[in-house]
Specification:
Order of helices and strands: HEHHEEEHEEH
Largest sheet: 5 strands, mixed, barrel
Radius of gyration: 22 Å
Strand content: 25-35%
Number of strands: 6
Number of helices: 5
Length: 154
Amino acid sequence: MMGNSRGRRLLIFLAAALALAAGRLLGRQLALAFVPEPLRLEAETLAEIYRENPVNGDRLYQNQLLELEGRISAVEKDDLGRPYILLETAPAARCYFYTGQQEELARLRPGDWAALSGLCRGYRPSSPSYPAQIELSDCLLTGKPADADDQGSS
C-alpha cells in the first residue's frame, strides 16, 4: 500500500510540474499576444503637448507604449549607471535603455536621428539636478526613421 501511495504522490508531483511548465510557456505566449501596438509620434509633437499642459500630457500618454522619432541631443548614463538618450525637444524626452543595449547606444551621436519605443513614465518637473523632462523607460531602438538621411542633412 505504501508503494502505491508514493507512486500516486510522484504522479501528482509530475502532473503539477508539467502543468506549471505548460502554464509558464503558454503564459509567455499569451503575454506577447497582448502587448499593445505603440502609439507613434514625433518626439517634438509629444513635447509640444507636454509644454502646453503637463497634466494633459500625462493623461494622454503616461503608462502608454510610445514609438518616437527624433534627433538625439545626448547619449549618457545617470548617477546609477543606467544608459539613456535625450531627444532634442523642450521639455527633453529622456529615454532609459537596458544595459544590454550598450553596443547599439555606443554607435549613437548627438545630432543623429533615431526611432525608439518605450513606456512613457510621464512628466518630471525641473529639479536642481535636471531640467523638466518627459521620461520613458524600457526603451528599445527600433531603427532610423525612413527619411533619416533627409533629416540628418537639414
